[in-house]
Amino acid sequence: MDFALAVLDMAGTTVADDGLVVRAFTAALDDLRVGDAERPRMQQYVLDTMGRSKIEVFRALFAAESDAQRANAAFAAAYDELVGSVVPIPGAEDAIRALQEGGTRVALTTGFGAGTRDALLDALGWADLADLTLCPAEAGRGRPHPDLVLTAVLRLEIDDVRTVAVAGDTTSDVLTGLRAGATVSAGVLTGAHDAAALTAAGATHVLDSIADLPGLLGHR
Predict the structure, then answer these.
(1) Handedness of CA 147, 150, 154, 156 (dihedral sign)
(2) Which of 191, 89, 72 is closest to 135 using CA atoms?
(3) Which pTM value belongs to this model?
(4) Which InterPro entries match (predicted)?
């Protein structure tokens, strides 16, 4: 099959996370003065829901919308302070270029807000690398809903969802791909979730790294 589109996650998949997301979440909990008794539950929820829209995660953790918005803003501010230290996953940029050279368009997606997404792209020098970048606010809903993938399909005028491949490091990435009808919904082992979790979520393939995706899709 000729794949027309690859939809790739950012943090943990194409971009090394190195604990930055967890550190930013911790800063958000500090900002709201969350007590020690509540932190373990909240931190576990953050780990379990890696890849999802950050504001939706905070809405699940805090009953008041004002608290969720405050936590989301604190998270974004903390991550933006750390973003200068981010680096690509080894081979990620080469993989993206190989896909494009082989005729597969590339969309980068994230659960971050647009400002954090753009800061991350600027720090990496990737502002013009992908054919499209999307965050949840630009698609309707974040992962594990299919919206990010389907929005990429619509914006890039892809004719058939069966020519789409999705790759990410979380179960939410896998579910997003499956729910969008992608033929390939691959998990990668460079981020939040392990092979057992990705397989249990229904991953069509489990890859050591995003660097393996071009080969999977028939590109050299």
Answers:
(1) positive
(2) 72
(3) 0.85
(4) HAD-like_hydrolase_sf (IPR050155), HAD-like_sf (IPR036412), HAD_2 (IPR041492), HAD_sf (IPR023214), PhnX-like (IPR022468)
Residues 6+ apart with CB under 8 A from 194: none
- Mean pLDDT, each 10-residue run in order, the chain (220 residues): 94 86 83 84 82 84 89 84 84 96 96 87 93 94 94 97 96 96 97 94 97 92
Q: Extract the tokens encoding 39.
A: 């932190």
Q: Nearest-5° angle of CA 22, CA 86, CA 204? A: 70
* Burial letters 21-57, b for 16+ CB under 10 A, else e: bebbbbbbbeebebeeeeeeebbeebeebbbbbbbbb
Number of H helices, E strands in the chain: 11, 6
Q: Residues 6 or more apart from 111 whose CB is under 8 A from it?
A: 51, 52, 53, 54, 57, 135, 136, 142, 143, 172
What does the alpha-carbon distance between residue 67 and residue 58 come to, in Å, rounded to a whole number? 8
Nearest one of 88, 77, 87, 89 to 113, comparing CA atoms: 77
Which amino acid is it at 173? D
DSSP letters spanning 11-68: BTTTB--TTHHHHHHHHHHHHTT--TTTHHHHHHHHHHTTTS-HHHHHHHH-SSHHHH
Gap between the Cα atoms of 186 and 178, Å rounded: 10
| Contacting residues for 69 by C-beta, under 8 A, at least 6 apart | 55, 58
Residue 116 in tokens: 């954090």
Which structure tokens are listed for 58? Answer: 């905070």
Dist CA 164 CA 168 (whole Å): 14
